[in-house]
């Protein structure tokens, strides 16, 4: 198998695949935070977006408000952690997304 092979996860319906961004390593005063004391990150980069869920009539899909590349804030206990092809991802429902971070 080639090392150039890229694994692609394609979420279904209104789900989003997110790669969690690393939590801050130091405090504002410069103290290093050990791994055991770090809070679980709630910010991540959107890697894939599902096509959206069907409306109540089942006639059309409702598109999501995020796109690949967006940095989002998500619910602390939302989603499912998945390890695939040696990488860790978070698969979230669109309802677990709280905001898009604009920098």
From TrEMBL:
SUPFAM superfamilies associated with the record: GroES-like
Keyword Disulfide bond: no
InterPro entries cross-referenced by the UniProt entry: Chaperonin_GroES, Chaperonin_GroES_sf, Chaprnonin_Cpn10_CS, GroES-like_sf
Main location: cytoplasm
Database matches in PROSITE patterns: CHAPERONINS_CPN10 (PS00681)
Subcellular location per the Swiss-Prot or TrEMBL entry: Cytoplasm
Annotated GO MF terms: ATP binding; metal ion binding; protein folding chaperone; protein-folding chaperone binding; unfolded protein binding
Keyword tags: Chaperone, Cytoplasm
Pfam families the record matches: Cpn10
The keyword Metal-binding is assigned to this record: no
GO CC term, one of those recorded: cytoplasm
Function: Together with the chaperonin GroEL, plays an essential role in assisting protein folding. The GroEL-GroES system forms a nano-cage that allows encapsulation of the non-native substrate proteins and provides a physical environment optimized to promote and accelerate protein folding. GroES binds to the apical surface of the GroEL ring, thereby capping the opening of the GroEL channel.
Oligomer and partners: Heptamer of 7 subunits arranged in a ring. Interacts with the chaperonin GroEL.
Similarity comment text for this entry: Belongs to the GroES chaperonin family.
Entry protein name: Co-chaperonin GroES
UniProt source species: Nocardiopsis flavescens
Gene: groES
């Amino acid at each position: 198998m080639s090392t150039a092979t890229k694994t692609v996860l394609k979420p279904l319906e209104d789900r989003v695949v997110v790669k969690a961004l690393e939590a801050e390593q130091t405090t504002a005063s410069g103290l290093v935070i050990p791994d055991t004391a770090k809070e679980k990150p709630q910010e991540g980069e959107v890697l894939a977006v599902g096509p959206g869920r069907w409306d109540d009539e089942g006639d059309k899909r409702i598109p999501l408000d995020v796109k690949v590349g967006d940095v989002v804030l998500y619910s602390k206990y939302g989603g499912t952690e998945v390890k695939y092809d040696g990488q860790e991802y978070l698969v979230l429902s669109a309802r677990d997304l709280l905001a898009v971070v604009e920098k």
